[in-house]
Amino acid sequence: MITSALIKKFGTLQTPFYYYDLDLLRSTLDEIRKHGIEKGYHIHFAIKANFNNRLLQIIRDAGLGVDCVSGPEIERAIEAGFKPDQIAFAGVGKTDEEIQTGLKYNIFSFNCESLQELAVLNDLAAASGKKANVAVRLNPNIKAKTHKYISTGLMENKFGITPDKLPELFNLLPGLTSLNLKGIHFHIGSQIRQLDPFLQLCEKINIIREQFEQEGIELEHLNLGGGYGINYANPDEEPIPDFKSFFELFRQNLADTENQQVHFELGRSIVGQCGNLISKVLFVKKGISTNFAIIDAGMTELIRPALYQAEHRVDVLTSDKPKKYYDVVGPICETSDTFRKDIELPELQRGDLVAIRSAGAYGEVMSSSFNLRKKVDAYYSDELV
Ligand code: LLP
Predict the structure, then answer these.
(1) Which atom of ligand 1 is least distant from the CA of 310?
(2) Exposure winner among 79, 192, 331, 346, fewest CB in 10 A?
(3) What is the DSSP secondary structure assignment for residue 143, as one 8-state letter?
(4) CA-to-CA distance for 287 and 319, rounded, in angstroms?
(5) Whose CA is nearest to atom 7 of ligand 1?
(6) Looking at the domain that runs over 4-17+273-380, which CATH code has it been given?
(7) How far is the CA of 382 from the centre of ligand 1 (A)?
């Protein structure tokens, strides 16, 4: 919650900056514990959503593992105190060096995305005298009903092994003697707000699992990936996603999993709502049909609006004047550097503060130095009280 005392503090800090509400993060993790971990599910935090150390420590203390997509993410997770047997490693383009990093730590699972990757991993594991734990990532051809850039489970997407390659996979496996096939992995996309793509995923998994069983392959785990969405339009109405319904759907629709571990890799739904990008109005300019509120944060701090046409809620923290229409834009020399178009906000003037909400996932981590901009600071609710 952004109180008036907090807004006063914000006024003394150099903008723009990220502000994280750690109480909200803890309450979100409590819900995940209650409806997920305590029901026997294994949850990995998708570290790509936010690799900020303060957040990682809280997430680790709540008993989650981690899902990485690069060697440096594995190193960051280890530094933050996650155990190697809690680390899953996905990614369509793992380099040899990154594979070596995973082998060095003997991680929980390499989630392999092609037959060629399996062969390369096998060779590298053999060369270092190790056996690699593997899950094959399968592409279930499911429409995730999300932005096309963050949809990953369709045949046309680059991710995973398509089911038509299963016979080839079954032929290859006996020769891959430096691999332990432990599981199968899926991830159909991100910011999925409706549950029915997950229902379809369960149905596909039930079928695919049988194909493995018919080959006499016992799978120790199923990894269903992440993708659960958050409410960007009204974060205060739904600060914590409905994890009860999410996990319940899998409990009801995945066929008998008593002898199998079920893993998830959640990113956005864990950290999305606890982060805010706080920015100051630099100038207000009258356009032909709108007013421009030019703020000191831009696509360099939060690229989601420019890249996915994402609409983050903008709250004005320091004005309660009658409302006017604004395009809220950043300072970067690109028209795509626009946070919102034509929204009604209390009248703004130079120096007013705004909070760009729901910026905890894929915000700070996707920032860039375009225009030679400096990386902005992060502050936490427990240090600004
Ligand atoms: N597992 C795998 C294999 C993934 O590729 C991802 C996200 C996740 C888990 C976590 O997904 P989540 O629960 O956060 O939806 N930058 C984009 C999102 C890209 C997601 C990439 N993969 C955005 O800002 O919307």
Answers:
(1) 25
(2) 79
(3) -
(4) 21
(5) 190
(6) 2.40.37.10
(7) 28
Token look-up 């959503």 returns: 49
Ligand 1 centroid to residue 317 C-alpha, Å: 30
More reliable by pLDDT, 287 or 200? 200
DSSP code of 243? H
pTM score:
0.96
Q: Where in the chain is the domain with CATH 3.20.20.10?
A: 23-271
Q: How far apart are CA 376 and CA 359, in angstroms?
A: 14
The CA distance from 295 to 317, in Å, is: 13
- Which strand (E) or helix (H) includes residue 100? helix 96-105
Cis peptide bond upstream of 167, omega within 30:
no
Q: What are the Cα distances from residue 108, in Å, to 11, 123, 183, 376?
A: 45, 19, 11, 34
Among protein residues, the one with the nearest Cα to ligand 1's atom 8 is 226
Question: How far does the centroid of ligand 1 lie from the alpha carbon of residue 226, in Å?
Answer: 7
Domain 23-271 has CATH 3.30.70.141: no
DSSP string for 187-206: --BS-B-SSHHHHHHHHHHH
Q: Cα(217)–Cα(238) distance, rounded to whole angstroms? A: 42
Atom of ligand 1 nearest to the CA of 147: 25
Mutational test site, ligand 1, from 190, 246, 303, 356, max ligand atoms within 8 Å of CB: 190
Instruction: Please name the residue whose Cα sits nearest to atom 22 of ligand 1.
Output: 190
Report the C-alpha dihedral over residues 353, 354, 360, 364, rounded to 10 degrees. Answer: -60
Ligand 1 centroid to 70 CA: how many Å? Answer: 14
Task: Specify the domain boundaries for CATH 2.40.37.10 within the chain.
Answer: 4-17+273-380
Reported as a single tens digit per residue, the pLDDT across 289-343 is 889 999 999 999 999 999 999 999 999 999 999 999 999 999 999 999 999 999 9
* Residue nearest (by alpha carbon) to ligand 1 atom 14: 267
